[in-house]
Amino acid sequence: MYRSLIFFLLLSLSAVLISCHTDQSPKPAGYPRIHFPTDTGHYVYQPQDCPYTFELPDYMRVEKKEKFFEEDVSGNCWFNLICDTLNATIYLSYKELDQRMSLLNLMEDAYRLTYKHTNKADYIQPRELDNGHGGVGLIYYVGGDAASNIQFFITDTTQHFVRGALYFYAHPNADSLQPVIRFMVDDIDRMLDSWRWQ
């Protein structure tokens, strides 16, 4: 009986001594692995009855926008460019310039909608756009944990105006989204450089 009691005490003592010397450091934060889509080519997208064309990578799909807050926009050349692999969507809205929708008003709207992200943004950096084919505008790079990291508009300054915004269906975390944002910026740059007005 004494042997089993001594054995039990020694076993308990050794377990206590071993457990006291283990390193209890927390695991570092990890991010999921990102599987970028394979770029197998680009094609010229020419929406029917719309005054513009542009190049798209073949891993993006186009969804025509039918409603905008219960308003019918099916004939307005509004599109969603969806990259399913990255849970990303580029929303495009088209306006025809006229007396009611002036270029100045639409530019101010684009500015106001972009700067609504200031409470979460670390910075907002505008870059002028001139693709050499009649397309001019601004691209806004929004840093930090903002809901939309890229906002832009392109226009011919006389008849047509398109506004775009990139959104991810994920919690806005600048650290984990940064590689994906860089990837999508390349696609947006190529799209805007290839933009042609009809």
Write up this protein.
By secondary structure, this protein is α+β, with helices and mostly antiparallel strands. The chain has one domain (59-197). 26% of the residues lie in helices and 35% in strands. The protein is built from 3 helices and 12 strands; from the N terminus they run H-E-E-E-E-E-E-E-H-E-E-E-E-H-E. It has helices at residues 2-20, 103-114, 174-193; strands at residues 42-45, 52-57, 61-64, 67-68, 71-72, 79-83, 88-96, 121-130, 136-144, 148-155, 160-168, 196-197. The longest helix is centred in the C-terminal third of the chain and has 20 residues, at 174-193. It starts with a helix and ends with a strand.
